Amino acid sequence: RKEVEQDPGPFNVPEGATVAFNCTYSNSASQSFFWYRQDCRKEPKLLMSVYSSGNEDGRFTAQLNRASQYISLLIRDSKLSDSATYLCVVTPLKSNYQLIWGAGTKLIIKP
Amino acid sequence: NAGVTQTPKFQVLKTGQSMTLQCAQDMNHEYMSWYRQDPGMGLRLIHYSVGAGITDQGEVPNGYNVSRSTTEDFPLRLLSAAPSQTSVYFCASSYEGNTEAFFGQGTRLTVV
What we know:
The structure holds two protein chains of two kinds. By secondary structure, chain A is an all-beta fold. Chain A has strands at residues 4-6, 11-14, 19-25, 32-38, 45-50, 55-57, 60-65, 70-75, 84-91, 100-101, 105-110.
């Protein structure tokens, strides 16, 4: 089993819709969680951190479910510019220096 | 403020050739790392450094060397290129190992 798993998609969503996807992780002692965004042929960029209490930034909401070992990302009122690949990142407790990356979920927003 | 500068953007090598990917950051970050990204897989850590003079292996270190003589620079050397090293390579830096990582623009390497 991969340490961090994501549905690769693509998720094809009409503009203005709400979309959500999850990321599961295998190490129950994982410490830190992040969502990164990667545009086609570009470098990843931090979208948001995921806290135990959840995190909201405008149209984006991230949640952590430690009991079921997954994090989620919800995008409301989706825009064409939201089209990208969303990468889930987890930091295992045993190492502070290594981020474990999911393979990403591809999102395509259609007009 | 340039952030993380990575060169070259594209490179084609013949099997057996060697080369160095350059990475420099101007954010005074102690932590730097090299990843490779292959289709259908997450970023995989090749080598990382927690400060000048200190480097360590990541998940896929074979065939690569690194050094960290200064805080700013963290070059990645391919010793003898193989087709299996065809990939996109990213350099990243961060304040700490588990804080926001800032990436260079990537190097698309093809080994023929």
